[in-house]
Write a structure and sequence with these properties.
The chain is 42% helix and 12% strand. The chain is α+β, with helices and mostly antiparallel strands and 113 residues long. The protein has a 3-stranded antiparallel beta sheet. α1 runs antiparallel to α2 and α2 crosses α4 (89-103). The N and C termini lie far apart (38 Å).
């Protein structure tokens, strides 16, 4: 039987106006694409939405495993790039920030010296 890399996830809960919304995010995504997306997001001019949105989309597509998000009519949104495009910017930013916090909270191995 072949081995495969496990996908580890953690549920994050949104707050405020989005209380009850959650997303399961991958806590062990491939580091190269993740760092590319985080770097693009952090270096983007936050005054230029056109610069931060693609970086947010890239990061969320890489790490979100599933969610319970809905549209303004209460209809379930499947997780995909098209659904990401239907969300308000504040939701995208909140989800990206909370996801990044969870992923980068990886404990380092204890020192052996």
């Amino acid at each position: 039987m072949g081995r495969k890399l496990p996908i580890k996830t953690k549920r994050i809960e949104l707050t405020g106006d989005y209380e009850g919304w959650w997303a399961d995010v991958r806590t062990n995504p491939p580091v190269g694409p993740l760092l590319d997306a985080i770097t693009a997001f952090e270096s983007a001019d936050k005054e230029k939405v056109g610069e931060i949105i693609p970086a947010i989309y890239d990061m969320l597509e890489l790490i979100v495993h599933k969610w319970n998000f809905v549209d303004e009519k209460g209809k379930d949104l499947p997780f995909n790039r098209d659904s990401l495009r239907k969300l308000p910017l504040e939701v995208l930013v909140l989800l990206a920030q909370k996801s990044q916090e969870e992923i980068l909270e990886v404990p380092l191995a204890p020192s052996t010296s």
